[in-house]
Specification:
Cytidine Deaminase, domain 2, alpha+beta, DNA polymerase, domain 1, elongated, 2 domains, 14% strand
């Protein structure tokens, strides 16, 4: 009869080697070289019987439709429903995600520069309150494009035409900002602006000229971006903050 070591030794060795791979890559190539699953594997530290840590991390992420935002909002109890995730692993993950959210708040306190659409889209995904409903924010900026205030405008309004410009400009005037960026989310994987989004942008641009407050961008951020597809749409990057060009785009949308 084969010993336990003979029966299970090879599998255990393979699993341990798999557990070490993400950590070795982290040390040799740095954290930015790792995928989301590999970073999760580093946090999980070990796998389970018959499943190395990277396989466990892949299974964990796929349980949340490969959406890191959804995973970061999971409770300890929800994480423990995944096979191989015990209390210690679940608590560790929740602690790591909570620290990440606190870092976002610290960045806000430091008044970051809002001159990069990639940064703004990532920032928006970090601060939103709902991942199932459209959420609209206006970022009020000073003359150096630093954030003065993040104003939540609405949650759950699907029709952008229902938003009135005064909801945008009231806080802008109150804070005496020099410019602003409008940003709203799409819970889906498609950040393509709707005809209503274009109409609202056109209306705000006209009002901004009158108010002498610059509208520097309108971003539409997909909360579940698909691989190899745009994760956000920037009106500025697409040259749609010009009234004449935007009017042509608007006419072609109806």
């Amino acid at each position: 009869m084969k010993s336990f070591q003979q029966q299970h030794g090879t599998n255990m060795q393979t699993s341990m080697e798999g557990d070490n791979l993400p950590r070795e890559r982290f040390q040799n190539q740095g954290p930015d070289s790792l995928t989301d699953s590999e970073l999760l594997a580093v946090l999980l530290r070990t796998g389970t019987h018959g499943k190395n840590v990277l396989e466990l991390a892949n299974e964990l992420l796929s349980s949340f439709d490969n959406n890191l935002l959804d995973l970061s909002s999971a409770t300890v109890q929800q994480l423990r429903e995944i096979g191989g995730i015990g209390e210690a692993k679940a608590v560790g993950l929740c602690a790591a995600f909570t620290l990440a959210k606190r870092l976002v708040k610290l960045r806000l306190a430091m008044r970051p520069l809002f001159n990069n659409p990639d940064f703004i889209a990532d920032y928006m995904r970090d601060i939103i309150q709902s991942r199932e409903k459209e959420e609209t924010h206006v970022f009020l900026l000073d003359s150096q494009s630093r954030l003065i205030r993040d104003e939540l405008i609405s949650i759950g309004i699907l029709d952008r035409a229902l938003l009135h410009p005064r909801e945008i400009f009231r806080p802008a005037v109150r804070e005496a900002c020099r410019s602003f960026i409008l940003c709203h989310t799409h819970p889906s994987d498609d950040p393509t602006p709707s005809a209503e989004d274009i109409q609202l942008t056109y209306t705000l641009l006209m009002a901004a000229e009158i108010m002498d407050i610059q509208m520097t961008d309108h971003l539409v951020v997909a909360l579940r971006p698909a691989p190899n597809k745009p994760s956000y749409f920037s009106f500025s990057l697409n040259n749609l903050l010009d009234l004449d060009g935007l009017k042509k785009q608007l006419d072609s949308s109806f």
